[in-house]
Amino acid sequence: MDDGGHDGLESAFEEHRPLLRSIAFRMLGSEADADDALQDVWVRTHRAGTTGVHNPAAWFTTVTARVCLNRLRTVDGRREEPVVRVPEPVISDESGVDPEQAALLGESLGLALLVVLESLTPAERLAFVLHDMFGVPFEPIAALVDRSPTATRQLASRARRRVHGEAPAPDPDPARQRESVDAFLTASRDGDFEALVAVLDTQVLLRSDGGVARPQLNLLVRGSEQVARQALLTGRLAPHVRRVLVNGTPGVVVAPHGRTQAVMAFTVAGGRIVTIDVLADPARLARLDPPRAGAEPDDPRSHP
Q: The domain containing residue 73 runs over which residues?
């Protein structure tokens, strides 16, 4: 590819930005980190140029993957093992995701899936994201992770088993999903333990990330009765709940006095809630786009 000067290079980069941003988001788990990574990709591209590049999409993908892998390895080396880490969600109102969000999320990228991706090693995550989500052959991925294609295939296979086992596919009907979430919220508000258990899968998993500032909210709770008891403890927050879409599926923002205190994402399969992912880390909640996070919560009693 001939650079065509700065304007031609920038035009080529912008043409592929949606693809690169989607890759970076799946690799790094947040819009802000994905945008930071793309800035790094642009700087590297501007310095190196693309003269002689015959497949710009593949070339930009490789640079983006390398930038993200380096960032993941740096973070992975510094991070203490948390109880659970919930990445920053993409929040939109119930009217639906906007075109930019839709391009970012693709067909299905629920928060539960991103949580599982967070638990993979950097090499596993790269192999799974590039191959399973974007169809990149194993040979170029192998060069990025410094493994043989066979070993890289095994990385993706391990990641795939983990994802399929811990991130169940949600019901296809958003309205049915919302019914189950609303039933959970109503039961929580009313203190109805039996109704809570009824809407939860017997092996439901609650993952809550309060970060360093709120360690009491770093929780991993398994089982319908255990999760129902936890939900009853937060029933007082019901007046501050606003229904939203979280990564394109039904969820809620909890915002007492207009300040976002938590974002909750639900995965509904077979009419029951199978996972609940809660981001309650103030440091990362502060990074969310305020208009999307919402300052005026609804009273869930208006949505029986």
A: 5-86+109-166
Q: Is residue 55 part of a domain?
A: yes
* Digitized pLDDT (tens) for each residue of the chain, 304 residues in all: 555 555 677 888 899 999 999 999 999 998 999 999 999 999 988 787 767 778 888 999 999 999 999 999 987 655 555 567 899 999 998 877 788 888 888 866 889 999 999 989 999 999 999 999 999 999 999 999 999 999 999 999 999 999 988 888 899 898 999 999 999 999 999 999 999 999 999 999 999 999 999 999 999 999 999 999 999 988 888 889 999 999 988 999 999 988 899 999 999 999 999 999 999 999 989 888 644 444 444 544 444 3
117 and 188, same structural domain? no
Question: Which helix (H) or strand (E) segment is 240 a member of?
Answer: none
In whole angstroms, give the CA distance from residue 140 to residue 145.
9
Domain boundary, last residue among 118, 148, 166: 166
- Same-domain pairing of 130 and 226: no
Spatial distance between the Cα atoms of 55 and 1, rounded to a whole number of angstroms? 8
Together in a domain, 18 and 160: yes
What whole-number distance in Å separates Cα of residue 7 and Cα of residue 58?
20
Q: What is the pTM of this model?
A: 0.84
Residue entry with tokens 């606003």:
242
Count up the domains in the chain and report the number: 2
